[in-house]
Specification:
This protein is of the alpha/beta class. It has ten helices and eight strands. It is globular. 44% of the residues are buried. In the N-terminal section; belongs to the NanE family. Belongs to the NanE family. Pfam families: NanE.
Length: 227
């Protein structure tokens, strides 16, 4: 079945542990992925070829795969190279997400989308702005994600909370819209759907245990002492 049909009105769980933390191991990512599916996830977002290779045989839901890199000469981190696309497709990705912002990058976004489509996977554009989404649709992307809103210089003022404006703007383009980024509670997931999302991706609030723990610990420590 078309992955978009399976993901519509669905939850995608991004299983990306904190880099180099104790949970950053393929067998743990595979266990997280299975636990997410057991809890009702309709899809998964998985970073890296080793993690994808561990998760793919363990689940049957659609997988959105990415490869993250830290480049010296470009701020683009998500699937910047054509060979990244080949590696993720070979490891069983159904959908490959890429940075769809208009920033200096090693390979043009149009070439990345073309490589994704020729691999047989669908392309998900990780966008920061409406213009990113419009360009991505012209280039052949099948999903527009709000993933990078708040993470570029141009959108730094949106770094708090959910970008419902961008979700609604993408809805008006008649695209498949993925709300992604800082969806940290079930209530925010519902708000994303009301704003026009077709599906919602949740990462940190479900799979980055160190960060979730810190949210609770900080609140407890800053709570008033007198009762
Ligand atoms: C900006 C960027 O690099 N986002 C990444 C994309 O894969 C991940 O680090 C996020 O965890 C993911 O987008 C889910 O978002 P959140 O963790 O806020 O639920």
């Amino acid at each position: 079945m078309n992955p978009l049909t399976l993901l519509r009105r669905g939850l995608v769980v991004s299983c990306q542990p904190v880099d180099h933390g104790p949970m950053d191991r393929p067998e743990i990512v595979a266990a997280m992925a299975q636990a997410a599916v057991a809890g009702g996830a309709d899809g998964l977002r998985i970073e890296g070829v080793d993690n994808l290779a561990a998760v793919r045989p363990a689940v049957s839901v659609p997988i959105i795969a990415i490869l993250k890199r830290d480049l010296d000469d470009s701020p683009v981190r998500i699937t910047p190279f054509l060979q990244d696309v080949e590696a993720l497709a070979a490891a069983g990705a159904d959908i490959i997400a890429y940075d769809a912002t208009d920033r200096p990058r090693p390979a043009p976004s149009a070439a990345i989308v073309e490589a994704i489509r020729s691999s047989g996977a669908l392309a998900m554009a990780d966008c920061a702005t409406l213009a990113d989404g419009q360009r991505a649709l012209r280039e052949g992307a099948s999903i527009l994600g709000t993933t990078l809103s708040g993470y570029t210089d141009e959108t730094a003022d949106r770094a708090d909370g959910l970008d419902t404006d961008l979700i609604s703007a993408f809805r008006a383009l008649d695209a498949f819209v993925m709300a992604e980024g800082r969806v940290n509670t079930p209530e925010l997931a519902a708000r994303a759907m009301q704003a026009g999302a077709d599906a919602v991706t949740v990462g940190t609030a479900l799979t980055r245990l160190e960060i979730m723990t810190d949210w609770f610990a900080a609140k407890i420590k800053s709570s008033p002492e007198d009762r």
